[in-house]
Amino acid sequence: MSRNVTVETTVMKLDNAQFERILTKEVIQLREIFRKYKHELRIVGGAVRDLLRDVEPRDIDFATTANVYEMKNIFYKESIYMINLKGEKHGTVTVHINNKNFEITTLRIKNRLEDATDHSMWQADASKRDLTVNAMFLDFNGSLYDYFNGYNDLLEKRVVFVDDAFSRITEDYLRILRYFRFYGSLAELPFKYDESTLKIIKAYAAGLSVVSGERIWSELKKILSSTYAKELMLDMIECDIPQYCGLIEKANVEEFKRACSAVKGKSNLNPISLAVALLHNVMEAIKMHERLKLTSFERDLSFFIIQERDKVDKTYIGLNDYQEIYLKRHVKREFIEELLKYSNKEDLFFAFKDWDGKLDAPEE
């Protein structure tokens, strides 16, 4: 399923308490700065979705009619500190105000901004976004601008590509993972995927092989951290996706299901532990690290889990065994705790977590 542009409509006027709370002095300061220099600024992305669901946003991102050069000039004149200059090549300037960061991105349009009308600028930008629920804008009067029926999709818990799935996916193959990630965060079981979209995803899954490992792991971590990690990953396996994401073609599905069940309704596993559950041996974990560019902590944890998991209930039985791993092999406590959670050893996990790090002296 994909969605073509509709006539611009201010779907609703948002005036809930959450909207009032985001109008902090920092946000008001940014609004006034852009007004001063005659550029429009609107809230975009996750903050809009959250506000429409009456959830307090964690971050607030903006889109603007100003280009990067203009933004940098403006912030220089107003003595606003700018960080993360790498984002500039993507049209994003990040500013730091009162220990808070705000990302502001110039509108993505083909024509020069000065040659475009107000309506066409925002519509053109919306048409370049991945999903309809991400193609909405909110102004500072609380007016919602929705070009692709994203608000209705949000209410109906649908995940739909803007315009057509083929174009959006082939522009950036990472959107395949984002499609599943948003199903995990916005929808409910059973997921009602659009079959034509799944066919396109399966046909072009190999495109993920050209996406950087860092970007892929950033999305995979969010998928594996979601409530529906098991369901999402199994659906992705059906679409032949994992083999292009640093995992393997023939995933260890039963071990993955077991690991997901081990922590259901309990404490969460580190996403890398669920990723490694899909693998069979340490060589596959090494290849995963090479593809995804894991942190040293994630790399070492993945190696530890895959090398030690089969020893649980065989070599490692009681609390003493896990204490000795820590004391004699100098393994991080976090790794041992993660192995116990992964292995569904809840009692041992809490006993080890409460342990003071010393072995009791033997009785004489």
What can be said about this structure in brief?
One of its GO terms (biological process) is mitochondrial tRNA 3'-end processing. The chain has 364 residues and is of the alpha+beta class. 48% of the residues lie in helices and 11% in strands.
Features:
single chain; 364 residues; alpha+beta; Beta Polymerase, domain 2; Hydrophobic Seed Protein; cca-adding enzyme, domain 2; 3 domains; 8-stranded mixed beta sheet; two-stranded parallel ribbon; 18 helices; 48% helix; globular; nucleotidyltransferase activity; Poly A polymerase head domain-containing protein; tRNA binding; transferase; nucleotide-binding
Tell me what you see in this structure.
With 364 residues, this protein is α+β, with helices and mostly antiparallel strands. The protein folds into 3 domains: 1-156, Beta Polymerase, domain 2 (2-Layer Sandwich); 164-211 and 218-239, Hydrophobic Seed Protein, CATH 1.10.110; 246-363, cca-adding enzyme, domain 2. It contains 18 helices and 10 strands. Helix 12 packs antiparallel against helix 13. The longest helix has 13 residues, at 296-308. Residues 191-241 form the tRNA nucleotidyltransferase/poly(A) polymerase RNA and SrmB- binding domain. Belongs to the tRNA nucleotidyltransferase/poly(A) polymerase family. Pfam families: PolyA_pol, PolyA_pol_RNAbd.
